[in-house]
Amino acid sequence: xxxxxxxxxxxxxxxxxxxxxxxxxxxxxxxxxxxxxxxxxxxxxxxxxxxxxxxxxxxxxxxxxxxxxxxxxxxxxxxxxxxxxxxxxxxxxxxxxxxxxxxxxxxxxxxxxxxxxxxxxxxxxxxxxxxxxxxxxxxxxxxxxxxxxxxxxxxxxxxxxxxxxxxxxxxxxxxxxxxxxxxxxxxxxxxxxxxxxxxxxxxxxxxxxxxxxxxxxxxxxxxxxxxxxxxxxxxxxxxxxxxxxxxxxxxxxxxxxxxxxxxxxxxxxxxxxxxxxxxxxxxxxxxxxxxxxxxxxxxxxxxxxxxxxxxxxxxxxxxxxxxxxxxxxxxxxxxxxxxxxxxxxxxxxxxxxxxxxxxxxxxxxxxxxxxxxxx
Length: 375
Ligand code: PMP
What we know:
binds 4'-deoxy-4'-aminopyridoxal-5'-phosphate
């Protein structure tokens, strides 16, 4: 029977307790949300939703075509200009998602014959970028610049080093300065995914590359998503103008994809302008993360010290992680749950988002629920 193997896989997944299902979120959910990626609490901000609505009214429900045909509006170029200026890069290019932006950056900058050195903890979109790129990929240990240096030393010719700035599972930061130094020693380019850093790290949320003094460098390219701190949807690649021009001409997920929806561009631009006006939001997300971590630790829970707004709590097993998250939900708290195959065996986690708009009482309540439901 066609697709018969799917049933076998489904059975194995059921037996391992790893089935995933979709749970539609009602518009007026009563749950306290520590599961979303809305780090700055901007997704529902009136200026952001109005930015989306105004853009849709002006430019339409969709961008109507690929960026090189009809899908580039004045709104797209405005957003690109302001994102580049905010993050400290020469130029920017927006994509329909952060996933597409990562595929573009890695495939267009690590072509055939080049070496791509990739951190073992990188996000799936960077991993897929490495798979699609025709360069040879060498995966190195997590946050290990010495291994990066060794990998680069074995290769003659062009090379890039690819790393998340903040890793999505544990919320820890990459050693960006050391990676940049290793790249410079070997004439390699550095490509970093700042999905969890933009809006949270650096002065006023300008991102991890800015904080590390790497923004605007000729050999550094950053990607980010517009779907987390900016409360919208879409992705961006930031870098030297000549690199961005190269992506316009060579990146398949740019050329063959429909341009970012105007509503998403309008929402992201409104959120960015809010952040420029209210830079405290970024610091507040970091403060909430620190407070969450401190309270969890005091409650005897094993939480990883957060470098940005992601707080990770270790669970004893995938099954217990799933049950723990479900018990939190029953008690009115939404938390993320990471387990295989999203993470390697042995590191199942609850993943908490330290939203800038959480109150002290909400933080206290979240920690109480997590403590009371622990396996
Ligand atoms: N990189 C990282 C580190 C992410 O966490 C995500 C989102 N899950 C992405 C890239 C993909 O971004 P998007 O959701 O905009 O496709």
